[in-house]
UniProtKB/TrEMBL annotation:
Belongs to the iron-containing alcohol dehydrogenase family. Residues 190-386 form the Fe-containing alcohol dehydrogenase-like C-terminal domain. GO terms for molecular function: alcohol dehydrogenase (NAD+) activity; metal ion binding. InterPro entries: ADH_Fe/GldA (IPR001670), ADH_Fe_C (IPR056798), ADH_Fe_CS (IPR018211), Alcohol_dehydrogenase_Fe (IPR039697). Its cofactor is Fe cation. It comes from Thalassospira mesophila. Pfam families: ADH_Fe_C (PF25137), Fe-ADH (PF00465). Residues 14-178 form the Alcohol dehydrogenase iron-type/glycerol dehydrogenase GldA domain. This is Alcohol dehydrogenase 2. Keywords: NAD, Oxidoreductase. SUPFAM superfamilies: Dehydroquinate synthase-like.
């Protein structure tokens, strides 16, 4: 069989070391000339004591550090713009994002906004960012969004809508994976972010147009690492091996879906995050079962392959193995402690039509789904999840 043409892009410089963030200053000083650093993070990480050692290492390596700690989950536009305005007054010449997906997504956009006059409102969508950006280093503390290796930033616009900026400028210059940073991540966030990463791998593997041999290889290895270690990391956050494999798996999944985009699970999850302010990974967990069952009519052969990747016990034909894959994913989510029904997280059934209408706005994602989804289908999927 011949192959289709495909492209693949990722961050060029990735370093992985347990405890490595305590040497972030030296790691950056040897790579960049810039020394006026903007460190973007959230208050929770400062309170957890994760930022002080990193700041110390930056100062010791000769960096002048400006700290921005106003990031909130599912960040709204005002935070991005406020951060960029503040940075402009400080003559920042390198941006460091350190935190979960919310901090990394803001860092990526701010690195662009500091050097450009293009308004953020013109950047949403695919390939709409015009200028260049400042040097950009990304250090994730969740395993996770994979944002450290994606060309995507997700921002909450207006009150409730989540929109993506997708552009080559959002790939960072340097990524540090230090799994020690994830040790204190509470169990429910470990579950939520780990499920998010698994969904990235699954949706990249079944993406309709851009799936390719490299994204496939990464998605398979990501899912293997994540499914083997999710429960161990949830049960004992100090399990170093599990934390390391989760962080690596989340990054591999990020590399996969940056090139072979996610689809209906994310498209239906975003309205839940927007309206109900639920953690992104939990919204994925809530929609995963219904969407996998819906997609199986086309994606069953690929789900059957993923059953083998995850070493799901059993044998049988494609349908049997695809069913086993879906059942295994649901078991993993139950064991992780993630809620499984919309009613369990206070979603009301009279909001389901509004959610379905909103999901249709995620056309950037829905086109990648292996099976077409209309507003009626979306409503049926929310009803199933309810
Ligand atoms: N850019 C992308 O490619 C991409 C992909 C998927 C999701 N996202 C976006 O990323 C955001 C979600 O990111 P997230 O799930 O990583 O969470 P997050 O950044 O929103 O953080 C969630 C909470 O976890 C805390 N936290 C993070 N790391 C911690 C640690 N090591 N120890 C203790 N507490 C810690 C934070 O303080 C915060 O309170 C959403 O806005 C989502 O839409 C982006
Ligand atoms: Fe995600």
């Amino acid at each position: 069989m011949t192959s289709n043409a495909f492209g693949f892009t990722t961050v060029a410089d990735i370093f992985v070391e347990w405890g490595g963030s305590k040497q972030l200053g030296a790691l950056l000083a040897s790579r960049f000339d810039a020394r006026r650093a903007l460190l973007i993070t959230d208050r929770g990480l400062i309170d957890a004591g994760l930022i002080a050692p990193v700041e110390k290492s930056l100062v010791a390596a000769g960096f002048n550090v400006t700290l921005f700690d106003q990031v909130v989950a599912d960040p709204p536009e005002a935070i991005v713009l406020g951060c960029a305005d503040m940075a402009k007054t400080k003559q920042i010449d390198i941006v460091i994002g350190l935190g979960g997906g919310s901090s990394l997504d803001i860092a990526k956009l701010v690195a662009v906004l500091i050097t450009n006059e293009q308004p953020l409102t013109e950047m949403y969508g695919i390939g709409n960012v015009k200028g260049n950006r400042l040097p950009l280093a990304l250090v994730p503390t969740t395993a996770g969004t994979g944002s450290e290796v994606t060309n995507i930033s997700i921002i909450t616009t207006g009150e409730t809508t989540k929109m993506g900026v997708v552009s080559r400028q959002l790939y960072g210059d340097f990524v540090l994976l230090d799994a020690e940073l994830t040790v204190g991540l509470p169990q429910i966030h470990t579950a939520a972010t780990g499920i998010d990463a698994m969904v990235h791998a699954i949706e990249a593997y079944t993406s309709k147009f851009k799936k390719n041999p490299l994204s496939d290889a990464l998605a398979r290895e990501a899912l293997r690492l994540l499914s083997d270690n999710l429960i161990a990391a949830c049960k004992d956050g100090t399990n170093r091996a599990a934390r390391e494999k989760m962080l690596l798996g989340a990054m591999l999944a990020g590399q996969a879906f940056a090139n072979s985009p996610v689809a209906a699970v994310h498209a239906l999850a975003y309205p839940l995050g927007g309206h109900y302010h639920l953690p992104h990974g939990l919204t994925n967990a809530l929609m995963l079962g219904p969407v996998l069952r819906y997609n199986a009519k086309v994606a069953a052969p690929l789900y059957a392959e993923l059953a083998d990747v995850m070493a799901v016990p059993g044998t049988g034909n494609v349908t049997a193995r695809s069913d086993a894959f879906v059942a295994h994913m649901l078991t993993l989510m139950d064991e992780s402690g993630a809620p499984r029904r919309l009613r369990d997280v206070n979603v009301t059934d009279n909001s389901l039509s509004m959610l379905a209408k909103d999901a249709m706005k995620q056309s950037r994602l829905l086109v990648n789904n292996p099976v077409e989804i209309t507003e009626e289908d979306a409503l049926a999927l929310y009803r199933e999840a309810f």
